Protein 1
Amino acid sequence: MTLSIEVEATHGPARATTITTARGTVTTPCFMPVGTRGTVRAVETEDLERLGAQIVLGNTYHLLFRPGPGTVERLGGIHGFADWSGHVLTDSGGYQVFSLSPKVDDDGVTFRSTYDGDEYRLTPEGAVAVQTALGADIQMVLDQCPPLPSPDPVVREAVERTALWAARARRAFVDLGADDRYQFGIVQGGVDAAMRVESAQRTTDIGFEGYGIGGLSVGEDRDAMLAALAATIAHLPEDRPRYLMGVGDPVGIVEAIALGVDLFDCVLPTRFGRHGTILSSEGRFNIKNRRFADDAGPLDPMCPCRVCQRYSRAYLRHLANVHEPTAARLSTLHNLAWTLRLTERAREAVRDGTLESVRTEMRALYD
Ligand SMILES: [Zn+2]
């Protein structure tokens, strides 16, 4: 079946939607926890179910080397391997590969693996094959993502290659004939509005089930990011999901929702959690701080998550300071619950016309 999207409410460009796929439905705005190596670090599948996560992101780069796509495929794809029945979205592996100073040509990218030091090659067609073996519901095309700031010719080259590769990836995907899987194209173009518009047009001309907005939150300031995002979204179709790749800080999420983004992923809530940094309705703090030594209150008095219902700041501080693995797990569970709840609040706010107050609140707490 085709992927469809029903826009249930709008508030300016912001929207609350339900996406329907062969796997089921996803309500948006939606935050996707990142399952780097086949699990979201420090938590298990049952935790994600209890948290109400709808889509989990799998990192192709890591699964490519350990345990390898063949193993994952034989064990039922990521769904069977991890016993996860929600949606799986995989990246192409390109983002990690481009951080390894690879050799890039028009055909693909050659890099040395951080796992075994050997030379590997990733092409648009190869990225489709790997993500198909991993069993992703939604695949991302291989794109070229330059850091910012980059000189104009570098951004231009990324737009050209991304368009060229997107067309090849689409052909390879369509050739599979899988009607229960979907593929998203990716818009590049740095913070240059004209290049963003061109990249959006070239990507939508090829035609995908949804669109990733890549190459943002890679060094530019937030105002530049939001301007580039607005320029991009103006040229994306309303009847396709929009996914802002790699943005997951509270202000970034609500500002992007206000501009019309549906999907997000980011390692921030889980990485923060492992280091004791807590997201809360009182702003961000580190639970290891001495001031929590005798604090009997929850991490966040406004948070309905299991961790906040049960444990005190003093207990969680103690666990973190003696390096108990449980500290990382509980902080991660809270941060994920908090971030998922933020997108749910934004969804309600779009419906109620109160998104402005959520924006004001997040800016006051996190800017
Ligand atoms: Zn909580």
Protein 2
Amino acid sequence: MKKKEWTKKCRVCGVVKPGETGFYVCKGNRDGRYGKCIECYKAYVNMYREANIERIRKYDRERFSTYKRKAKVREYISRYKEKYPDKVAARNRLYSAIKRGVLQKMPCEVCGENKSEAHHDDYSRPLEVRWLCRYHHGLLHGHYKYGTE
Ligand SMILES: [Zn+2]
Ligand SMILES: [Zn+2]
Ligand SMILES: [Zn+2]
């Protein structure tokens, strides 16, 4: 048996429209449909979007760039792990040893700078490291030329 078509009056434009096709579904309402008709609903959404278009665009842009940046970092880390598995493993062993108090972080062995990085001469011996500041660590790896600073 075919259900009798029911109608509903839009509370915005006042036009009486078929309930099933004229209004969006709204579970919270008693008759299961929105109080405003589909046309009025769309107009409302457009109006809201237009009024806030700049804000929405900016939000979309920011969300997108954060997403891209995070993806880049993730990619970099996983590539790094693939490229230098022994390096990463040695570093992990070293930092867990420091955490457990087995080993202590030391100032740069050249200049005494407190902010230092661990340098491994041999990754198969993860706890044998030299502590160097960023600058002297860079020098050791040949990142800087002598005498430029
Ligand atoms: Zn309407
Ligand atoms: Zn140093
Ligand atoms: Zn190093």
